[in-house]
Each structure stands twice: as C-alpha cells, then as structure tokens.
C-alpha cells in the first residue's frame, strides 16, 4: 500500500483509500496511527492531538510488540482491551468480539499470519469469497448448510478485522490498515408483512384460546409488545412499578442507547390490557408485568393456523409504529416513544411504506381536479 506525503509534517495519506495517517518517529521508531478520516482539514485538526498522545507514550506502551505480531496475538490484545473497558456494556463487548468465530471459519489461515504480511488484496479476496457463499457451514443440530453471509454478519466481520489490524497500526508494526479498503454491504431491507387490525385481533384470540389451560402469559406479551412498541428485552425488564395508571404513563426500561429508557403515555389498548391483567394476577409492584420471556412459538403457530405471514417479536414493534403513523401520530413523537435519538430519521426510513390499505386510502385524498369556478 502506497502513501503520499502532504504539506503538513507527519501527515500522510494512503493513495489507495484516501485515509489520512499520523506518521511520527518516537524513540527512534516510526509509528503510524489512522486519523479515521479522508478529509484533509479534519485530519489536520486530529493530527496535533494524535502526535501528543504518541509522543507521551499512549501508543508507545506496546514496546513488547514485535514486528512478527500475528493476527492471533493482535486479537488477544484487542479482546483484553475490550473486556477491560469499564465504559462498555456486556452486550457491547459481546457484539465487538462475536465475529471471532466468523473469521476463524471463513479465513482460518489468517490467524497465524504476521500482520505486516497481510495486504489489502488479501482482504478483498477474503471478502469476495465470503460474499459469494464460499464459506458455507452446517450449524450444530442443523441438517443443511448455510451461507452465513448476511450483510449484518459481513459488516460486523469487516469492523472486527479493522479493529484487530489497528492493534498493529498503533503498535507501529504496520503503517496502514489493510481492511480500510473494504466496503461494507448495504443491509437488505426487510419487506414488512404485518397483520391488519382484524388479523391481529384474530391472532391474539387464537393465541389466548391455545393457552387457555396454561395461563394467558403469551397473549399478554403479544398484546403488550404491540401496544407499547417495546423491544422484547425491554418488556422482560418491565415491572408493575413502571406503570402509573393515575398519570396514564408507563416507564420502558430500555438500554440499547442513551435515549432508549423512556416514559411514554399509555395507549388506550395498553391501559385496557393492564387493567385486565391486574384483575387476573393481583400483582405486587416488584413483579414482572409479563410472565413469559418469548412468544415466538405462539406467534408461529397462530399465524400458521390463520394463514397469515409469520411475524416475530420485533414485528410487533413494527406493528405498533405503523399503527401509530396510520393513526396520525407525529414522526418525531413516535421516534421518542420508540427510544430513537435521530429525530425521526429511522422511523421515516423504516415505516415510510405503511400498509397497502393505508396507502390506498391516502391516494384517494390526492386531488388533481382544478378548483371550482
């Protein structure tokens, strides 16, 4: 990989990717650090801080790292750094490290190679093979092979590669990250096939009838997810103390993002569900609202019996959002109810399609007739 000097001392740019790097000699050793930008003005601003860190020894703590550092060795250092970061939640740590198995399966020979010997072309060949199903595998207890190359899996593996290679870049073993040249894959947009209101009412009735002997827990959770828009993990953490009937508010203890925990007004349907459940269970404030942790099986069986497209937990969140939009709820308000922090951008991207019958009704409102008179 070739680099080109700039008019700014210690600032270089890779000709292949256009990413800027700080190249600083510290204690007689030339060290490299990606500035994570292709914009010259931004790189200049970041360069000074990076030079200070490098000369202060922030990166020089890797003096024990030899030039023959392997990908396996770099991964162990990366894993240790992730696990030692107290600011990261357990789920975040798992997400950052989960692609280890993917890389061991799709590129097994990489792990014992020296980082400095891995080139951008090697990474491209791996990605091309991966994207074209060249690493099919048979999961445990499965009978058929799977490609395992969904956009989510591929993009996570690319981020993992970059993170591990950055260990070598920061240690001065290599001057550029060979995975920087890889392009992520656009995620496939899921075509939502949600039940209409009549179908959903029948689905709830079917699930409640199927569980009449063993309790109404599955039916309660199906309705609860659809009437609140909570993620299934959030619903599992909801307790009766989170319900304020006097104010008509419910606390949803989200933790996916900083804006995920929220206090929302209860929809009439959810308030009705809560009142029915209280009469049935006589719960304590510390009791969980929902008595089951999953309703996937109930949804699958119910949808099959009714002959409607299969839905899962997250589809019930989609159903809530779609119903809110169809009912005239403002996009910004809905995004806050869902725990988004982007001002409604994700809501517009995800739910702009709505359901066919709603779109048909909306189209009839479009009038091209000239005004009377």
Automatic annotation (TrEMBL):
Keywords: DNA recombination, DNA-binding. InterPro entries: DNA_brk_join_enz, Integrase-like_cat_sf, Integrase_catalytic, Integrase_recombinase_N, Tyrosine_recombinase_XerCD. Belongs to the 'phage' integrase family. This is Site-specific integrase. Residues 190-364 form the Tyr recombinase domain. SUPFAM superfamilies: DNA breaking-rejoining enzymes. It comes from Actomonas aquatica. It comes from the Bacteria. The keyword DNA-binding applies.
